[in-house]
Amino acid sequence: MNQKGTLTFFCGKMGAGKTTKSKTISLEKNAVLLSEDDWLEAHYPNQINSFDDFIKFSMLIKPFVKSHVEQILNTGTNVVMDFPANTKKQRQWFKQLCNEVKCNHELIFLDLSDEQCLVQIAKRRDQQPHRAQFDNEEVFNHVTQYFEAPSKSEGFNIIIEANV
Questions:
Q1: What Pfam families does this protein map onto (predicted)?
Q2: 53-75: per-residue pLDDT in tens?
Q3: Residue 16: how many other CB atoms lie within 10 Å
Q4: Which domains does the chain have, with CATH numbers?
Q5: Which of 20, 30, 116, 141 has the most CB atoms at less than 10 Å from its CB?
Q6: How many CB atoms lie within 10 A of CB 164?
């Protein structure tokens, strides 16, 4: 039987550090890193102007991304996905992917307070001014209302990192 790669993905509020952590872990695990932001920008440049646009285009790439990730994992290569697993529905997508491939997984939950996230968002906005349209407290509050912390009952291998 072929050894499958391990899938690592993240849960954490906007600004919790998912992208930074995904880059670090992909290097540590010698894993393929896939970023939703990169995929969306490559496929839909300058078309994401609202949260609804993000949701719409994110759903459009999911079938292709899923197939791509399954192929990579089936080669025995580890995959780190910088795609949000911030709601039960989003995590169900990851669960289905893992079940179909029958691979090991890690759900890393970056458990930071709203205040910590907002500080990090402000820093990111200063470092990357082009992100100011979305990296602000208004968008944070809108997105955070949908956030659902993962629970053991969902059947994931959860690694909790607080105060990252």
A1: AAA_33 (PF13671)
A2: 888 999 999 999 999 999 999 99
A3: 24
A4: 7-162 (3.40.50.300)
A5: 116
A6: 15
